[in-house]
C-alpha cells in the first residue's frame, strides 16, 4: 500500500520556535533583493517586518498571508477557515518570484512556501502543499503532482491540469478497478514572523475513474471518486468537498493551531 500513513488524518506536526536569524538566509529560498523584501509593506500598519504584530484595530480579523499562487486554493481556504469560525483575513501573496518547491515531502514544501511568505510580508503565513498519491504509481505523482505532465508554469493552469489528468489516465489505462486506489494529501503549514512553525496533514482516500467527470474544484478533481461517494470531487458542491477533503481536514486542524499561535 502506497498511501500516506493513517496518522496524517490527525495533527502530526510539532510547534517549535527557532531563534531569530536561524531560519533560511536571504536568497536561499528565492532570489528577492533587499528592496523586494518590503513587498509586504502594504499589508502592514506602522510596524514593519520584524516588529511583531502588524498594527490593526483591536477587533479587526488578523491578517494571514496564503503562500500560494493557486486562486482555487485561496477560494477553498477562505471558505474552510470561515466555516471553522477563525477571525482571520486570508490575503493573497503579493507578486514576486515563485519559491522553488524543492522538498521531498508535502510538509517540507509547505514549510518552504510559508517561510518565504512570512519573510517577504512580515505576516503570519499559511501554505498548502498537496497532491495526488496513486497506489498503482507507487504513490506518485505525490509532490510532483502540479508538474506531472512536464508542462511548466508558463502554460495556463487549466492547460496543465488537463495535461496532468490525461497523463495519469493514460498511465492507468490497463489498471483494473481493484487497483485504482488513490489519496489526495495536503500538508498545511503555518509560520509566524517570529519563527514559530507547525505542519498538520489531511487526506482523502478514494479511487480514480476512467473518464473525467464534473467541472467543480480544480486539478485532479474530475478523476477522483472519494470513498463512499458516487460523484467525483469535481461533482461535489464546494461545501461537500470541504467536509471530506484533504484540505478541509488539514486546515480544520490548522485553524486550532492558528488560534493558539496567534492568540485569537
Ligand atoms: O483538492 C484538490 N483537487 C484536485 N487536485 C488537487 C487538489 N489539491 C491538490 N491538487 C493537485 C493540483 C496540483 O496539481 C497539485 C498541487 O500542487 P501544489 O504545489 O500544492 O499547488 P499549486 O502549485 O497549484 O499552487 P501553490 O504551490 O502556489 O500553492 O495537486
Ligand atoms: Mg506549487
From TrEMBL:
Q: Do you know which Pfam families this protein is assigned to?
A: Ham1p_like (PF01725)
Q: Which InterPro entries match?
A: dITP/XTP_pyrophosphatase, ITPase-like_fam, RdgB/HAM1
Q: Which GO terms describe its cellular component?
A: cytosol
Name the GO terms of the biological process aspect: nucleotide metabolic process; purine nucleoside triphosphate catabolic process
Question: What GO annotations for molecular function exist for this entry?
Answer: dITP diphosphatase activity; ITP diphosphatase activity; metal ion binding; nucleotide binding; ribonucleoside triphosphate phosphatase activity; XTP diphosphatase activity
Q: Cofactor comment in the record? A: Binds 1 Mg(2+) ion per subunit.
The kind of enzyme this is, by top-level EC class, is hydrolase
Q: What is its EC number?
A: 3.6.1.66
Active site annotation, chain numbering: 129
- Which SUPFAM superfamilies does this one have? ITPase-like
Coiled-coil positions are none
Regarding protein family, the annotation reads: Belongs to the HAM1 NTPase family.
- Role of this protein: Pyrophosphatase that catalyzes the hydrolysis of nucleoside triphosphates to their monophosphate derivatives, with a high preference for the non-canonical purine nucleotides XTP (xanthosine triphosphate), dITP (deoxyinosine triphosphate) and ITP. Seems to function as a house-cleaning enzyme that removes non-canonical purine nucleotides from the nucleotide pool, thus preventing their incorporation into DNA/RNA and avoiding chromosomal lesions.
Recorded protein name is: dITP/XTP pyrophosphatase
